[in-house]
Fold this sequence. Notes:
Blueprint: E1 6-10, E2 18-24, E3 33-34, E4 42-47, E5 59-64, E6 70-76, H1 82-87, H2 89-92, E7 96-99, H3 136-146, H4 154-169, H5 171-189, E8 200-201, E9 207-208, H6 219-229, E10 238-243, E11 258-262, E12 270-280, E13 294-296, E14 310-315, E15 327-329, E16 336-345, H7 347-350, E17 359-361
Parallel strand pairs: 4-5, 14-15
Antiparallel strand pairs: 1-4, 1-7, 2-3, 2-6, 8-9, 9-10, 10-16, 11-14, 11-17, 12-13, 12-16
Amino acid sequence: xxxxxxxxxxxxFKDRFWVYQVVDLRTDSFAQLGKMYGTQPGFYLLVxxxxxxxxxxxxxxxxxxxxxxxxxxxxxxQDDTPEDKAxxxxxxxxxxxxxxxxxxxxxxxxxxxTVKKVPASGDGSAETQWVVPxxxxxxxxxxLADAPPLPGEEARYAQVLAVAEAAKADPAxxxxxxxxxxxxxxxxxxxxxxxxxxxxxxxxxxTTTSNNAAFGTDYYTRTAVAKSNIFVNAPSExxxxxxxxxxxSARLNGKNSYTVTFAKGEAPAVNGFWSxxxxxxxxxxxxxxxxxxxLGTKNKSLKYNADGSLTxxxxxxxxxxxxxxxxxxxxxxxxxxxxxxxxxxxxxVVDGTWTPPAVDKAG
Length: 363
């Protein structure tokens, strides 16, 4: 965590796909840093909405957030091979950010393997609840103070803040507000944790979203994404496809076996990479003996069918030996979801010409 103006360092990634997601408090993007933008190695400055300081020599570009809080999430492609896991280590050391006061125009190096690990607040088996409905009205004014209203939101902000003030002054209003927040959590916030309950419906029960990292006043989609899959790149950086159901509209569950077959030449068209990932009912990786949580471009041993198609086997038990390179382990029991990432997608993926194939139940 850094306070004040922040310098982002971009090392030379050479031919690797990479992108830095930089979003404000609303999780809307305000900086374009990545291979798809032709970003050059160097130093980039992130500043808040009111900063009027002098930009030092050596800074390539300044990006201004609309809020005083921002998040930076670097993503870099790595093959699933021992050689590439070793090769990527040096460039990872060049990914860093630090206060402007520490900027001296030289590339810094950080050995991230030595960084202190902070214990998790929960056991990691399910989502940690950070927003507690009964505390919501106390915390909301603090958040709104850091996120000035967008054009047209001024009246809404005034209404919300008036309710917060009234709740502080009147126990009866506070009780009603807390009860409404609890009801909203159950009826409005929890349902979009299931991918099928929001977004744009596609063929074969897939869904997608089109305004990632640019939610603006689309409060529902922003809330849904924050609940189910927070911190998503803009569609031009990464296109996401979500799946909770099989071709027959039954919930995906580990007691069944499934196949996903991409016809010849019909894998997601990307300039970067694509992957099919499995998440368990908590939207976490499902532990498995081979430590495999996704399949895609990074997997160099995928086996193609005689007709050039690619079949991925989604099931809890290993398939027969000659199919195991294409096996995506599922939980032994319980619901799960599938999730396609198309990083640096080509136009057919972004504009909806291409959509994912069906998830077929085996047997």
